[in-house]
């Protein structure tokens, strides 16, 4: 048995040459650092954010990363895909179910709790490679006794109905009487809306605690009448003995060095999976099988499944550890959001990580998230689209009540196909506004058709297209054909009264994104019709009979699509975002924040933006990401230059979209600044609302910005194209993707592309590829390496923009008062302190001087207050390095070194000018 001294030393890390106890939990070792998100300490403000970040899940269940003791003000969240209820709410919402993560330990009445008991040390890890959360906390009670608390939990990726959790308590000194309490907390609720308070959407229907070791609970939602069953088993282990516990109040005594461990196994099922009459039987069957297999076997199966998932989903960025881990964090949340269950389900704007947007599903899923699944797990992608297919009747009703034909997909969707958009909500500035998206923001219908196209192009899943996809596309086209208005004077079709992706401008005429997507939808439906007519005539005949479609109607789609009005300036060639946009007050971004992102002008309120040319997020420019082959480089460049100066990025959807096109067009520094923001949106709570859950559209957009932006992938009907434009300090990006029934292993840098093609069946032929703008055929199993012959031109270094001759410096004996005059007279934030050989010794900044009183200034010299731990850049560093430092630290100025010699300074403003100026 370990002594208390041994255990305390283990907390600090064991002697050199031995594995650190910090990295081992219940026989499982933490993954390497690039797979870990680490939490140290505890605070009320970040608590809810951390709960979102540390969410565990498997596509079926999502469980917010609460601490087991559920500190006061915690926001537990247990969500199941597709489980909605409306009772007491304005619209139906994702149900916050009873919280199974509720394990309380008290020492003689004093709860081990991060809020109410002193803690000496706390660390928690989200291990993304294993899909587990590990925790180690050392508590100290009022009697100065210390308790080492460790926990591990996971929701099985191998068995979506299974939860496993371990908790151990070790007394490090003294002796204590303790109580452990394991309860299923059914007091949780959905939080309040604008006009109502907290709501609990379920009631207890069945309890069975008569078994010697098993507990069973069944709940039913109020209006949707869905049943949810929980069954759990608790095991206690001490001194090598294991005992199954029925009574969940357990008293025990510990002496110094003793440990007690609890293992909880739980099965969670719903009537979405099983008949209500069989629910208890199935739940207990799952639980008994899991208990029989044992924790170690269940953990091993879970880890192995994650290993297989990561083989397809992981992206490795070599040369940038922070971006590499942050990207992996975003991919982790995409993985746990993807659902493969026996009923089709889509993904909400916050997935199963929080209650933001009430769990509703938007256009985000098809445009921003779907591509990740198409290219890494097509079965999940298909499930997302089948969710839309099986809700076509609701979309038909949605169109019919507004006087249109075909299908109008709801702006916000839940369990059914009807619209669940609330009538009122808070705007960005906190004001309450009426929500009009369902009446005007109808591009979602074409967005979903685009999702079908995107999936079919990549997978060639003919069965899906014949049986489901074609109906979605054709009914969507039918809607647009009934939605347009013919302008006799122009001899063009128009769409009035819409909202484009830019939601600053409400109820506009001829929004270019909407009109273009509608035209494309009509043309694609026409093409699909003729493709089916040629290759699947009987299936087409059945479909036409089902939806009462005529060939004359299909011909009209082509005519409308070919003659859709897109407002374009004849003078400049710029696509007008909507008709009349150019007449709005001409406004451009003037100020930028620490992240190099635009700041909304303080003299405008949000309600005034519709009178200006300010844009909320990518609108017209989004077309270039969706249809890169349909626009020339000059068309893209011209429109990008115009709109980037007017975009405020007031949506989490915006940064990744602009990063993608910025990278493709050569605006590399801005692309990297946008990427840094997007990849850290939730990790750094950059939108100040991560407590409501992960921003899943941004999460999917980050994947696209990496693969389609920096890695330079694009797709044509029959080919994959690669033309990488990596940030200069990135050495390589490596990833896998599925394309036309083959798995491609791809590695790219700015000078080379390497691809290996693994066909999914033996008779598959080669794949057409366009690498560095040249065509090739990739034969199966052959390693291809393509080198870029042209000189790499996107090279800007610190020396290109730094102040070389006019920078101010001082030596260690320079009076602080004189340095303060330097700062004021030259409007600078810091002065490098150098020796006689111009080698850097430290800096004196505004903050350093503000720390001393006025009376001290006359006596002090630079060496007395300078900061010797100095952040700096080298003159040969790529400017991306400086961008990272300035976004992460509060500096306004950095010394520039050649070797150890100061040769200049670099200011935040100079980097900002490089990021936002004309690209090169």
Task: Please describe what this structure looks like.
With 920 residues, this protein is of the alpha+beta class. The protein is 32% helix and 23% strand. The protein is built from 25 helices and 39 strands. Strands 3, 11, 12, 13, 14, 16, 17, 18, 19 and 21 form a 10-stranded antiparallel β-sheet that branches. Strand 12 (132-140) and strand 13 form a beta hairpin. Helix 7 packs antiparallel against helix 10 and helix 18 packs parallel to helix 24. It is globular, with a radius of gyration of 30 Å. The protein starts with a helix and ends with a helix.
Q: How are the secondary structure elements laid out?
A:
Layout: H1 4-12, E1 24-25, E2 28-29, E3 36-40, H2 44-53, E4 56-57, E5 61-63, E6 78-80, E7 84-85, E8 93-94, E9 103-107, E10 110-111, E11 118-127, E12 132-140, E13 146-155, E14 162-171, E15 175-182, E16 202-208, E17 214-221, E18 227-238, E19 241-245, E20 249-255, E21 259-270, H3 276-293, H4 295-313, E22 315-318, H5 321-337, H6 364-376, H7 378-389, H8 392-400, E23 424-426, E24 432-434, H9 437-440, H10 444-459, H11 462-483, E25 485-487, E26 492-494, H12 512-535, H13 537-547, H14 551-562, H15 622-626, H16 633-644, H17 654-665, H18 668-679, H19 696-710, E27 713-715, E28 720-722, E29 732-739, E30 742-748, E31 752-759, E32 767-771, E33 774-778, E34 783-787, H20 816-825, E35 830-834, E36 840-845, H21 846-850, H22 854-857, H23 862-865, E37 873-874, H24 879-888, E38 893-898, E39 901-907, H25 908-916
Parallel strand pairs: 28-32, 37-38
Antiparallel strand pairs: 1-2, 3-11, 4-5, 5-6, 7-8, 9-10, 9-15, 11-12, 12-13, 13-14, 14-21, 15-20, 16-17, 17-18, 18-19, 18-21, 22-29, 23-24, 25-26, 27-28, 29-30, 30-31, 31-34, 32-33, 35-36, 38-39
């Amino acid at each position: 048995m370990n002594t208390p001294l041994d255990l305390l030393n283990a907390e600090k890390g064991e002697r050199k040459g031995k594995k650190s106890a910090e990295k081992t939990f219940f026989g499982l070792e933490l993954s390497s650092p690039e797979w870990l998100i680490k939490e140290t300490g505890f605070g009320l403000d970040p608590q809810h954010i951390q709960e979102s970040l540390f969410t565990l899940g498997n596509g079926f269940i999502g469980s917010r990363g609460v601490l087991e003791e559920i500190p006061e003000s915690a926001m537990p969240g247990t969500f199941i895909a597709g489980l909605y209820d409306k009772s007491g709410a304005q619209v139906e919402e994702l149900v916050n179910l009873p919280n199974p993560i509720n394990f309380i330990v008290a020492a003689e009445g004093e709860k081990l709790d991060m809020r109410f008991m002193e803690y000496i040390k706390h660390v928690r890890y989200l291990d993304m490679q294993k899909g587990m959360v590990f925790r180690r906390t050392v508590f100290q009670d009022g009697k100065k006794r210390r308790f080492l608390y460790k926990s591990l939990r996971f929701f099985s990726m191998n068995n979506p109905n299974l939860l496993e959790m371990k908790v151990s308590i070790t007394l490090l000194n003294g002796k204590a009487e303790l109580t452990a309490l394991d309860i299923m907390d059914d007091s949780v609720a959905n939080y309040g809306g604008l006009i109502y308070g907290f709501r609990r959407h379920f009631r207890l229907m069945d309890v069975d605690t008569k078994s010697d070791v098993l507990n069973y609970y069944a709940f039913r939602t109020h209006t949707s009448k869905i049943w949810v069953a929980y069954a759990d088993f608790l095991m206690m282990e001490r001194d090598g003995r294991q005992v199954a516990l029925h009574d969940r109040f357990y008293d025990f005594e510990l002496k110094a060095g003793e440990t007690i461990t609890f293992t909880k196994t739980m099965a969670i099922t719903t009537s979405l999976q099983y008949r209500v009459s069989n629910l208890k039987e199935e739940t207990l069957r799952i639980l008994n099988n899991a208990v029989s297999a044992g924790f170690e076997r269940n953990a091993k199966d879970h880890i192995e499944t994650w290993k297989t998932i990561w083989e397809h989903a992981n992206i490795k960025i070599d040369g940038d550890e922070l971006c590499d881990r942050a990207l992996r964090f975003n991919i982790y949340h995409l993985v746990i959001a993807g659902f493969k269950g026996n009923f089709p389900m889509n993904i909400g704007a916050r997935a199963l990580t929080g209650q933001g947007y009430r769990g509703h599903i938007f256009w985000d899923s098809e445009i921003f998230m779907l591509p990740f699944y198409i290219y890494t797990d097509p079965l999940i992608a298909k499930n997302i689209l089948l969710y839309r297919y099986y809700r076509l009747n609701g979309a038909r009703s949605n169109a019919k009540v507004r006087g249109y034909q075909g299908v109008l997909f709801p702006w916000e969707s839940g369990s059914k196909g009807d619209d669940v958009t609330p009538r009122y909500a808070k705007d960005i500035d906190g004001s309450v506004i009426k929500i009009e998206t369902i009446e005007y923001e109808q591009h979602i219908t074409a967005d979903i058709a685009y999702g079908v196209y995107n999936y079919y192009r990549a997978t060639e899943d003919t069965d899906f297209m014949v049986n489901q996809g074609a109906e979605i596309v054709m009914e969507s086209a039918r809607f647009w054909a009934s939605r347009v208005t013919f302008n006799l004077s122009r001899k063009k079709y128009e769409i009035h009264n819409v909202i484009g992706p830019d939601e600053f401008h409400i109820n506009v005429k001829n929004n270019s994104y909407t009109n273009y997507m509608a035209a494309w939808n009509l043309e694609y439906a026409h093409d699909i019709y003729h493709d089916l007519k040629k290759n699947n005539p009987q299936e087409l005949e059945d479909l036409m009979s089902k939806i009462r479609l005529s060939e004359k109607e299909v011909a009209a789609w082509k005519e409308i699509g070919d003659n859709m009005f897109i407002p374009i300036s004849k003078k400049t060639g710029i696509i007008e975002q909507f008709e009349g946009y150019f007449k709005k007050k001409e406004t451009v971004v003037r100020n930028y924040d620490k992240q190099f992102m635009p700041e909304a002008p303080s003299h405008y309120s949000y309600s005034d933006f519709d009178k200006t040319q300010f844009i909320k997020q990518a609108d017209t420019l989004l077309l270039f990401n969706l249809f890169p082959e349909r626009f020339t480089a000059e068309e893209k460049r011209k429109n990008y230059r115009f709109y980037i100066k007017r975009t405020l990025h007031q949506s989490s959807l915006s940064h990744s979209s602009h990063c993608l096109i910025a990278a493709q067009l050569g605006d590399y520094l801005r692309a990297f600044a946008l990427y840094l923001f997007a990849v850290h949106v939730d990790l750094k709570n950059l939108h100040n609302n991560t407590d409501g859950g992960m921003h899943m559209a941004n999460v999917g957009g980050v994947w696209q910005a990496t693969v389609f932006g920096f890695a330079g992938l694009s797709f044509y009907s029959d080919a994959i194209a690669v033309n990488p434009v990596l940030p200069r300090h990135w050495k390589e990006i490596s990833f896998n993707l599925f394309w036309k029934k083959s798995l491609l292993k791809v590695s790219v840098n700015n000078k080379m592309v390497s691809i290996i093609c693994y066909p999914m069946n033996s008779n598959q032929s080669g794949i057409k590829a366009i690498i560095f703008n040249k065509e090739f055929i990739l034969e199966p199993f052959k390693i291809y390496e393509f080198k870029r012959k042209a000189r790499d031109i996107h090279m800007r270094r610190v020396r290109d923009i730094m102040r070389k001759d006019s920078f101010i410096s001082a030596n260690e004996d320079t009076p602080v008062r004189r340095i303060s005059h330097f700062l004021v007279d030259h409007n600078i934030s810091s002065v490098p302190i150098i020796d006689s050989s111009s080698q850097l010794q430290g800096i004196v900044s505004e903050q350093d001087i503000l720390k001393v009183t006025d009376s001290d200034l006359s006596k002090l010299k630079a060496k007395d207050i300078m900061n010797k731990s100095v952040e700096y850049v080298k003159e040969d560093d790529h400017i991306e390095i400086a961008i990272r430092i300035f976004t992460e630290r509060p500096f306004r100025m950095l010394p520039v070194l050649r070797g150890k010699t100061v040769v200049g300074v670099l200011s935040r403003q100079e980097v900002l000018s490089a990021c936002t100026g004309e690209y090169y």
